[in-house]
Design goal:
Blueprint lengths: L3 H14 L3 E3 L23 H4 L9 E9 L15 E10 L4 H13 L12 E6 L9 H7 L8 E4 L1 H4 E2 L5 E12 L10 H9 L3 E15 L2 E16 H8 L12 H10 L6 H19 L8 H20 L6 H7 L1 E2 L2 E2 L13 H10 L10 H27 L5 H8 L3 H10 L6 H22 L9 H21 L5 E6 L4 E6 L6 H17 L2 E8 H6 L13 E8 L11 E4 L14 E10 L2 E8 L1
Helix pairs in contact: 3-4, 8-9, 8-12, 9-10, 9-13, 10-11, 10-13, 17-18
This protein binds serine.
Length: 613
């Protein structure tokens, strides 16, 4: 039987043999893309190239890419939803299109020598049925008919057979491959029978070929891209489940030994769903830590914290009663009394054995290599923090204060734990009220997160990122030459140029423009570092960080600083601005800066357009 490692390797070898350069997995945390917290698909790191930028390794690429999706975290524990998974994918950047993409998908799935040896009689295909944005994909059907009888090819709407990474970027119709996992085989299915088989998991999606020739802006398809791309994606975990004939991903070799360890350290209250959640969450946590994420209260760090804490709450009932030493380690209580002190010295994570096994499962990849000790430490530290919060919470409870929302927001008490404690004290928890308070709380933090990226770039190719940093330098130079009262009143960046609007009540003289330009180029030549910090809004204001007039900012803001420069004889920071980024790391990356035009924008507002070469 093929192992998950064999499947990954076969996939990469298959496409390498067909002229594809093999990319190592990019970090789970996207570089230069503030619009997503994690890579959620294999294509995410490739967006600029799908949009037309030249890739240094050519026009045919393939990879096994680490991904994290937390959108359906509540579903984790069923047979196929995971927060961490690997996506196998091959790409054509304006090279081959539907004919080869479909042929190779079919060959890889069915070839015994080079691929997975699937039975073609168990394959079902879906294609895009067409709408106002793109025609019915008859071309894909014609190609599929060479391999699969037409009565096993089904047309489905955009909801099913169109793929885009978000509201902006490349997208297109797709064709999806499904495999019949029933013992006796389903045979021919009508359209409705097929849809029902998909709904109840008798057929499983194993691969998606996206024909990315369209572009989306602000959620609407606006037309065709300059090049026709192929973006395929197949989840390794799910593919392994099908290859190994298992009914859920936890029985595959990517999870089975981890599940065994959880079973071993559990007592008679072992519960399969909780065990799955622990295995999934701790694996994701290890991967995130290896890629540089640390537990915190925001962004990626918040997700990591949530994963670890959810797993801690789940492991508690599995590994024994409140008196169990492992449990004490986590919640620090015994016999329902508060233990105020628990000596952590020499202790280790309650997940230690599970983590060792996770590291073992990925020993043939680079994912966790060299990060093992760090992973143990970060998880252990987070456990300790959580336990301390719980200790304090328990003190409150002992005083008779059981407010689940307060316990959650102040001490990190998960609702399930509060409910359990309340039960021992004969107190009823108003779950509905708690859920409402949480919904409100989450809506507030979401609004904060969205605001934080206001001012961030929608398009993040190299040139726009450079122009963005040049924009900050230009504002600083305008203030130095024309006066501190100059403020940004508007801005816009495209791939060709930057534009800034600012208050100033006369034309800027040519000699002033020359001076501004020279200042910016001087700072570029100095190679100043550009750093991002997060701080409370009040602190950023007190530091005098530039903010755009009229824009709304959240309580915690992201601030970019370009510093230090010694150009004026003393060390000072060139620029400090409220900004969502992204930016270059060092000004030397920008190139030569040139002002192209200075003109009136409206009464009292001037406009400058500038480029970089
Ligand atoms: N991007 C597509 C997906 O995630 C194909 O790779 O399904």
């Amino acid at each position: 039987m093929l192992t998950s490692h064999d499947i990954r390797q076969r996939f990469l070898d298959f496409f390498a043999k067909r002229g594809h350069a093999i990319l190592p997995s990019a970090s789970l945390v996207p570089e230069n893309d503030p619009s997503v917290l994690f890579n959620t698909a294999g294509m995410q790191p490739l967006v600029p190239y799908l949009m037309g930028q030249k890739h240094p390794l050519g026009t045919r690429l393939a990879s096994a890419q680490k991904c994290v999706r937390t959108g359906d975290i509540e579903e984790v524990g069923n047979h196929k939803n995971l927060t961490f998974f690997e996506m196998l994918g091959n790409w054509s950047l304006g090279d081959y299109f539907k004919e080869d993409a479909i042929k190779w998908s079919y060959e890889f799935l069915t070839s015994k020598e080079e691929g997975l040896g699937f039975d073609p009689a168990r394959l079902y295909i879906t294609v895009f049925e067409g709408d106002e944005d793109a025609p019915r994909d008859l071309e894909a059907v014609e190609i599929w008919k060479k391999y699969i009888p037409e009565n096993r090819i089904y047309f489905l709407p955009k909801k099913n057979n169109w793929w885009s990474p978000g509201d902006n970027g490349p997208c297109g119709p797709d064709t999806e491959m499904f495999y019949d996992v029933t013992p006796n085989g389903l045979g021919d299915l009508t359209h409705d029978e097929y849809v029902a088989a998909d709904d109840d998991g008798r057929v499983v999606e194993i691969w998606n070929d996206v024909f990315m020739e369209y572009e989306k802006r602000d959620g609407a398809v606006v037309g065709k891209l300059a090049q026709k791309n192929v973006d395929t994606g197949s989840g390794l975990e799910r593919m392994t489940m099908v290859v190994q004939g298992k009914s859920n991903v936890y029985e595959t070799d990517l999870f089975s030994s981890i599940m065994e360890v959880i079973g071993k350290i559990s007592d008679e209250r072992y519960d399969e769903r909780s065990a799955r959640i622990i295995a999934d969450h701790i694996k994701s946590s290890a991967m995130l830590i290896a890629d540089g994420v640390r537990p915190s209260n925001k962004d990626q760090g918040y997700i990591l914290r949530r994963l670890i804490r959810r797993a801690l709450v789940k492991i508690r009932p599995l590994v024994g009663s409140f008196a169990h030493p492992l449990v004490q380690r986590v919640v620090g209580i015994s016999n329902n009394n508060v233990t105020t002190e628990f000596d952590y010295a020499g202790s280790q994570s309650v997940f230690a054995e599970i983590l060792s096994e996770i590291i073992q499962v990925y020993k043939d990849t680079e994912y966790l290599k060299g990060k093992e000790a760090l992973i143990f430490q970060v998880i252990f530290d987070e456990e300790t923090k959580f336990r301390k919060g719980l200790d304090n919470g328990f003190k409150e409870i002992e005083k008779g204060n059981i407010d689940p929302f307060d316990l959650f927001t102040t001490y990190g008490f998960p609702i399930e734990l509060t409910e359990e404690i309340a039960l021992t004290k004969n107190i009823t928890i108003d779950r509905k009220k708690f859920d409402e308070q949480m919904a409100e709380h989450q809506a507030k933090s979401r609004a904060g997160a969205e605001q934080k990226f206001k001012g961030g770039l929608a398009n993040t190719n190299d040139t726009t990122v450079k122009l963005h940093t040049a924009h900050h330098l230009l504002l600083a130079a305008l203030q130095e030459v024309l006066g501190k009262e100059v403020k940004q009143k508007g801005s816009n960046i495209t791939e060709e140029r930057l534009r800034i609007d600012f208050n100033f009540d006369r034309k800027v003289l040519p000699e002033e423009l020359a001076k501004i330009e020279a200042l910016v180029n001087g700072w570029i030549a100095e190679g100043l570092s550009v750093t991002r910090r997060e701080m409370p809004k009040a602190e950023a204001e007190a530091l005098g960080a530039e903010m755009e007039f009229g824009a709304k900012y959240p309580d915690i803001v992201s601030v970019y600083e370009i510093s230090p420069s010694t150009s004026s004889g003393q060390t000072h920071s060139v620029s400090l601005e409220f900004c969502g980024g992204p930016h270059v790391a060092n000004t030397s990356e920008i190139g030569h800066f040139k002002i192209q035009k200075e003109e009136a924008s409206s009464a009292g507002i001037r406009r400058i357009k500038a480029t970089i070469e």
